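so the lab meeting is tmrw and i was supposed to have these ready like two days ago... anyway. pasting both below. for each one the top line is the aa sequence and the line under it is the structure tokens. i havent really looked at them closely yet so no promises
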Amino acid sequence: MGSPLAGMVRRAYPSDVSDEEWDFVAPYLALISEDSPQREHSLREVFNALRWLVRTGASWRMMPHDLPPWPAVYQQTRRWIEAGVFEDIVHDLRVLLRLDAKREADPKAAVLDSRVLRSTPESGHRGGYDGHKRTKGSKVHAAVDTLGHLLGLHVTPANEDDRTQVARLAQKIQDATGENVTLAFVDQGYQGERASDAAKREGIDLRVVKHHDAKHGFILLPRRWVVERSFAWASRFKRLAKDYERLSTTLEGLHYVVFACIMLNQALRPEPSR
């Protein structure tokens, strides 16, 4: 039986992918050909449904009736995440954006930080309690280049110490850049030999930007806080306002989806020159 949406022309959502955006992402998303017999729903419509979900923050089961049904969207999203297609999109877009900014394709410096997403009933079973923020939830550990473009991230319970996650982040950074990064800026939460030694094992010098330096206009401060801007970009997508996912791998994957959308928009709709 064919899709109940076959032949329908629906009204566009603001989150829908444009023709130009689709031309870029379609080769990454086509794990099987568009006209394969087992494909029941338009791949573009499935991607539109995923973009609608991350933008609005609605649950999977609240997918609008004029988009493909939520089980089909969820299953395809899991396939994309497991295949790493959104990571590939993010990494390729980062290179394009850097070259457009007259930078080298791979950065030499990175910025590390984390943020806590409050638990929901769906995700609460794997949440941890962050005593500093007084929040139960999940912690997203991320690394970006000095332009704010994502290099890598992973999710842990919120009670995990940032310093213990440096080794994993440093490895992701070097995997993404061909071991090109030699310097990473961090805040005071990453102080200590354990974090420093973990970074050095990956060839990265960890440089802490201290608050008293920042108050006196420390020159590295803009690079340090670029990661906060990246988190702010991601927070505009309501699905990432809290931890709504049962699986941490889905939460990680949706971050890559969101950063792919952000960076795609930056690449195809550059800000006008001032």
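ok protien two:
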Amino acid sequence: MAVSRRAILKGLVGASAALLGGTGGYGFLYARHQLEVTRAAVPVMGLPPALSGLRIGLITDVHRSLWVSEADVTRAVAMLMGEAPDVIVLGGDYVTWGDRDYVGEAAEALAPLSAPFGVFGILGNHDDDHDMPAALAARGVQMLKDARTTVTVKGEAMDLIGVRYWTKRGSDIASIVRGATGFPVLLAHDPRRLVEAAALKIPLVLSGHTHGGQVVLPGIGALAKQKFPVVAGTARRAQTAIFVSRGVGTVYVPVRINCPPEVAVLTLIAGVPSA
């Protein structure tokens, strides 16, 4: 019996909807909880020998909320602590939409984090400018709100320069960098700050914000790649390296597809100049 084109199209639409529904259900029930530890060597130009091999733990985009439980965050903390990094960076977005109901819970879940050279945090676009940083500071996190601090490793000074999500102009970032004498590392929630960092010749940027795309479709990839210079992992612009973490939580929809959550442990190694 002949099958009409309309029937074929209806069948394809129905099959596609079923596939997407099944994938979305898996992304909600399982994939968003399949936390990984990403271990990456990051080549950095001009890296002082004393900093070669330094291991930086990066945990970002926790988004503690109705959909991201205390158990999710606690497991991320335990997994990162199990790696024993030398220094830890918190990359922002500790709650979602600045929800004050979860500020204390997010900070408390992150409180067990510790490292020999300290734990440092910056603010993302979902964080308020007072309550969240105060809650983290009360639990031992040194918050860098458009500020820098110096960490000394094996006699070598490393300047951690932390900018808020809302600090975007190159001149504003330059004013924070000005006067730094140690090896500079920019901590910026938004990976688009790679542009300003490269212009200022800052050799390393650590970011989050993208969630790695959160939903990565076969044949299409992450939709976020159209908006950000780097969606996930390691990249370089001119002589500036960047690592962008996929983060722990979710936002907008509590689903991850082909994009598991992560905590990252980054080992700094000397970079080779571009040809």
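from a quick look at the 2nd one: The chain has one domain: 34-270. The CA atoms of residues 125 and 263 lie 20 Å apart. will dig more after coffe
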